Every structure is written in C-alpha cells, then in structure tokens.
Amino acid sequence: MGEFELIQHYFAAQAAARADVELGIGDDCALLNVPVGECLAVSTDTLVSDVHFFADVDPVALGHKALAVNLSDLAAMGAQPRWISLALTLPKADDVWLTGFTQGFHALAVKHNVALIGGDTTRGPLSITISAKGTVPAAQALRRSGAKAGDAIYVSGSLGAAALAVQQRIHNLPINSDALRDCSFRMDYPQPRCELGLALRGIATSALDLSDGLSGDLMHILRASGVAAEIELTNLPIASAVQRSVTPEQALQLALGGGDDYELCFTVPAGHETAISELAVALDLPLTRIGTITTGEPQIIWYHQGKAVELHINGWEHFHHGEAGKTS
Amino acid sequence: MGEFELIQHYFAAQAAARADVELGIGDDCALLNVPVGECLAVSTDTLVSDVHFFADVDPVALGHKALAVNLSDLAAMGAQPRWISLALTLPKADDVWLTGFTQGFHALAVKHNVALIGGDTTRGPLSITISAKGTVPAAQALRRSGAKAGDAIYVSGSLGAAALAVQQRIHNLPINSDALRDCSFRMDYPQPRCELGLALRGIATSALDLSDGLSGDLMHILRASGVAAEIELTNLPIASAVQRSVTPEQALQLALGGGDDYELCFTVPAGHETAISELAVALDLPLTRIGTITTGEPQIIWYHQGKAVELHINGWEHFHHGEAGKTS
C-alpha cells in the first residue's frame, strides 16, 4: 500500500458513521440512502493553492475552510448536510500537514454530522475538491429564482471582516491586533449557516451564500428572479472589526465587494419580520434587513439614509476571486 | 464575467437535459431526484497532469478518459449512470484545448445519457476531478464483498493493451504500427462497461473495475469477501495486439499488473455459464472465465495448464499508478 493509499485509510478511520450510509469508503462507489420525498442537493468546490488560499495557510484552517465553503452552498439551498467526497491532491505526504488538515476537516464534519463517504488522494500540486451532498424536499429548496417584489432582503452575521484580513495580509495594513485577530478568524474559519438554511425552508423565497461580495452575489438572485433591489447602506451589518479599522468608504467596499463572508443573503415576503427576529434569537445569529425587492430590470439601487446614491464597487481589489467559475 | 466563468457557461450549454434533474447548473446546488427504492451511488476520481496522463495528451482523449474512469466505477457497482459534477483546474483558458476536451467529454456523456449538473472551473495546474453519480437498488448493488467459494471468476473484454501503450510511450518499444494503434486507443479511450454492470445485477456476487491490473484488483475482492482464487493463466483474455507485440512473459505482466484496462472483473455462482455466454453475445463483448473462487486466506493461486506456478508480478513497471489512493 502506497503512502497516499494509507492517507485514504486514515481518512476512512475518521469518517463518521451515519445510518443513511449503506456502503462507505472501500468499494467502487459509496451507496447512500436519500429519504423518500427529498431531492439530492450537490455542490462542488475546488480550492487551489495560491489562488483560493495562501500557500502557507495553517492546514487546520484549510481543512475547515475547504469543507465550510461547500457546506455553505448546502445551507444556501436549505439542504440538510449528509455526505462529503474529498479529492485531495498533495505534493507530498507530510504528517504534520495532514494531521492539521484532518483535524480542521473532521471537527467541522462532526459539528454538522456529515460523513466522509469517499474520494481520491493523489500526488500533485496542492488542491482540494470537495463535493458536499445533502437533501431537501424540492418544494422547500431555497432557489435563487423565487424573489418577488415587496420581499424584504436580509443578510446573516456581519460583512467585510474576511476581506479585510485578506487585504491586510497582502498590503500589511496597520490594523489593531484585536481587530486583525477577529478578521483573520473570519477569513480562516467561515461558519456555514446550515441551521439558518434549514430554518428558512418554507419562509425564504430565495437565498444564496455570500462568497464574492454582497453586491455581485445579490445580482445572481435579481437576475434569476427577474427583479430589482433597493439597499439602504446604513443598514448593512458591517463587522465591527472592519468599522474600527478602516474608513467608512473602505468598509463599504469590503462589505459589498470583498468576498469570503459565507453568510446567507435571503428574501422573505413582507409580514415575516417577527419570525425572522425570533429566528435570530434562537440561532444566536444577527439577521439584518438591508433592503427590499422591487419590480424592474435586475439592478441594485443604493440608498444612504433614504437618499439614492451612486456607488462604484471594486471591493478594494479582487484578490482571490478574479477567475473562478463556480456554478453549483 | 471572467473567462473561467464563461467556460462554465459553455459547459452548461452542453449539459444534456434529464427528467430527473430538478435543478441543474446555476444555483448554489444542483437538485436531483433519486428513484424511490434505489441508493445513490457516488464515485470520485482525480486525474492530475504528468501523474495520470501525459501532459501533451490529446484533449479529446482526456475529456473522454476523465469521464470514462468514473463511469467505470458506476458500472462496477451495477449502477445506472445519471449525473456528473466536473471540477476542472486549468493553467489558462485555451480555446482549442477546451473545445477538444469538451468534445471528448460530451460524446461519452451523450453515449451514456449522463447530465453535467455542476462543478467548478478554476485557474491552476491542470487537474480534473469528476464525481459520477448513479443509482442502484441496494440489494442489487455489485459489491466487492459477496464472492463465495465455488463462484466462477470472469473478466470482460481483453487485458494489457493500454498498459503496453504506456510502456511504448515511455520506452519507445519497437511495436508494429497496427498493434500500437490498437493499444493507444485502449489507453486513450477506455470504454466503461455500464451495460454489463446493469446486466450483472442479480447475477454477479461481486464485481470491480480493473484500473491497477488484475492481480492487485482481484485481491480487493478476495480481501473484502474473505476468500481465495485460483486463476488459469492460459485462460486470460490477453489483447491480441499485446500477444503479437511482446514475449508471453511480458504479455502476462501487462495483463496482470499493467493497469488502465477498465474492464470488469466479476464473480458468478456456478450454473450461470450459459447466461453469461448469452450476455456476451447480446453485448458483443467477450466475457471470459479465468478461474474459480475457493475457500482460504485471501490470495491468488496461479495455474498454467492446470499446474500451480509461482508468479512475481511487477506489471513491467508501475508507471502512472505508484501513489494513487482511490477509494470510491
């Protein structure tokens, strides 16, 4: 058995058991039981060294993040996370690195009760492709195409912190160490909002996760739904570490165009304000109304204290997001 | 939209429609309908440049092969192929290369009626991860663990041709041009035996696909099933192009240890000889009995014209298979 086969056996030993895994790692395919009445939801993401993460990233953080960005897609669909395939390409079998990567991966897998059901381990330039699989009844799936005029637009958590950590890393910005720690944690350990996604079944008319920055990501909902949006900039939940560290203009750029937030943006029909407030308390997660869906060509109309304003979003700069073509 | 996003849209336009795709490319996840009473079967394979294929390989062949090796895993499980996720990492967006890759991929996808339902396109060192998904009733799945003493052992098609093409490519062996063309085609265009896998439901007690060479691959069945095997070497269906081109000893090494055959090896209970013969005719695919499962510790006992022989299999050399840890 080669060292890369051994790695796979090591991962297999870590794989959590789930009753819906008919056959796990070790055969030509895994066999999985999808509940009757539910769709299989599948998302695939590749992270490449020096493109999606710094080559010297802590492997614990990388193991976490590689899984987190895929679970985030399931969350955005309102899907119950169940199973993970991991394709890991490594320049060499480095024990310390592998132990760290597995630790980060495994901790998040346990937290969300997902089982590693297969994959491939190969020698080559460092890259990670994860396919996350969950299930959701088709009628309750949170698609991008269901937003209607009059719906309220919400985002979870806070925005801009991960993007600021990326900028600090590149430009060595003079940022207070407490704020930097907060932002770096948000960059390295995004938290997939799976519970929120499940709770939004039957409530939200559309949803997606914020990976490239709110302004661009919200446009996906607007185009898929054939609607426009009005956003009040003063309502944006910009992370306090960002507000403390940069100018208001820079903070807006990071929150709207910075990326890597992995929060959910979703729309709900008018009249659900109380339900959403209660949900925020139950999940201990801020859910902030930032605007309203309107009729019209897909576009975002920005308001500042109720007054329409022009806004040119460049996200400071589009580091790490220039050329990705993620579709599901 | 970046050029890599455009690629994804290009692939999306090629994606075949299937009635069981509730939601295809373009949302956070694809949504898929698994038939009631069937398991989801999932296999993931990564192909890395210079590890699994020559960097200058014809992109048409690469598009074919990347999909074929995954469909081969579904075939080995007796699963009906349905859906494909494609994670493609490319150094640059090269029109000619992409057109070729897509052509090879698409032709095989159409042949097996599988729909591309998502993935990721990223800039980085050339590598391809495909996750193939199909379905099979759990009780009919062709696992590795069901072989019983007395079962006949079969392989489909012929063995050794792809491995000889690899050796020729490395060592510039003096091989007749007709034979080389046959072998190169087997290396570049493996044919996943999906119809055979489906037909073996309810007949075969175990199965797998031959990717690393019969001797090593058969051991996976023997270990999973807790049985031994007796193989008659003169019954091995060594490809005629191989028989014509190298010594009998070299031909054996290629057939047993060479890899890249992507034929099925399967076991059936005694008494099914006629059914298998009829199946071979119906599929126009040789199905050759090469031996018998016996009780005992997992091992292969080799026979030559009925006489037990010692055999040291090195597969000529293990090019392209040294460090892969494929598990499902």
UniProtKB/TrEMBL annotation, chains A, B:
Mg(2+) 1 binds at T44, D45, D120. One of its GO terms (biological process) is thiamine diphosphate biosynthetic process. ATP binds at G119, D120, R144, S211. Signal peptide: none annotated. It comes from the Bacteria. Pathway: Cofactor biosynthesis; thiamine diphosphate biosynthesis; thiamine diphosphate from thiamine phosphate: step 1/1. Mg(2+) 2 binds at D45, D73. Substrate binds at H52, D260, W316. Mg(2+) 5 binds at D212. Residues 26-135 form the PurM-like N-terminal domain. Coiled coil: none annotated. One of its GO terms (molecular function) is thiamine-phosphate kinase activity. Residues 148-297 form the PurM-like C-terminal domain. Its EC number is 2.7.4.16. Mg(2+) 3 binds at D28, D73, D209. Keywords: ATP-binding, Kinase, Magnesium, Metal-binding, Nucleotide-binding, Thiamine biosynthesis, Transferase. Catalyzes the ATP-dependent phosphorylation of thiamine-monophosphate (TMP) to form thiamine-pyrophosphate (TPP), the active form of vitamin B1. Reaction mechanism of ThiL seems to utilize a direct, inline transfer of the gamma-phosphate of ATP to TMP rather than a phosphorylated enzyme intermediate. This is Thiamine-monophosphate kinase. The gene is thiL.
